[in-house]
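Protocol step 4 of 5: obtain the predicted structure for the target chain.
Materials: sequence only (see below). No template structures provided, no constraints applied. The aim of this step is simply to have a reference model before the mutagenesis design in step 5. Sequence pasted as it appears in the construct record:
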Amino acid sequence: MTVAGDRPHVLLVGSAGGHLAQLVRLEPWWRDLTRTWVTFDKPDARSLLAHEAVIWAHHPTTRNIPNLIRNTGLAVRHVRRLRPDLVVSTGAAVAVPFFLAARALGIPTVYVEVFDRIDSPTLTGRLCRPIADRFCVQWPEQQPLYPGSIVIGPLL
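Step 4 output (structure tokens):
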């Protein structure tokens, strides 16, 4: 949580690869914020986040119940400890436990639906939509899939 004079703290959550690349493209927005990243310990993530605070999540996450449980514990522990002012995610499944932990603590969340799914909703988008305070899409074609979403334009 911010203290008078401190910069807001954002928790940026995303799988390695394209999800992480899209979060990185938001850099003009997050560059002046205190930030902590949550992603997978993969070569691209290590390279992109070499000088950043990172929490390494458990992978794979797609339909992997043991890692969902591990990531839920990780989310509860770190969200409670860090008390970020905002949690932002581009997915995928690693977003769900962090959004649930944030929601339980009254911390706002913003979900950005991925760049490459314009004709059907993603599983993570469907799970995070009801608990996200703001839901953003990158294409106008995605808006009918997520009523009330905000078009922010393509990140990649």
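Step 4 remarks: The domain at 9-151 is CATH 3.40.50.2000 (Rossmann fold). The longest helix spans residues 65-82.
Proceed to step 5.
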